[in-house]
Write a structure and sequence with these properties.
Radius of gyration: 60 Å
Amino acid sequence: MSGGGPASPGRGGRRREALAAGSPIQPIIKDVGEIYSRLLDHRPVIQGEIRYFVKEFEEKRGLRELRVLENLKNTIFETNEHVLPKCEQAMRDNLSETLKRLQAANDMIHRLQEREHEERKLQADKVMAREEKHVAHWEEFMKEQKTKQAEVDEEHRRAMERLKEQYSEMEKELAKYASF
């Protein structure tokens, strides 16, 4: 059905009513309208439930809600007037003491960091001194090795010359005997 329902006037609704007014379809349309309103139109039921809910809320809960709000107001006033100033004063007292403790701890940590820095610097200096000492020992060791190498080379050269002389003498002697 177009137009919004059997009993609702809309496009072509007047024409249908005019046609149905003198016909036997009129009781059927009326019955369909009643069925529609009972099954599909929930407005009267919802309105009744809303009225009942509002009545219950206003009668039974109204004064209780008012008392709860009054108690909340008194609690907030008490908190603002008495508890909050006490908390602020305690916070100020403890805050200054805490600030002093933090400052002392900060100073101690700063001193510890300075000591640690000095110790690291001393250790670094010791490591550098040891490294320089090792480098000096190494250089001295290398000089000794070069000196010993030169001595060994010189001794080897002399031994080679002695051996050459000895072999040349042996060759001369052999040459004497070979001529026989």
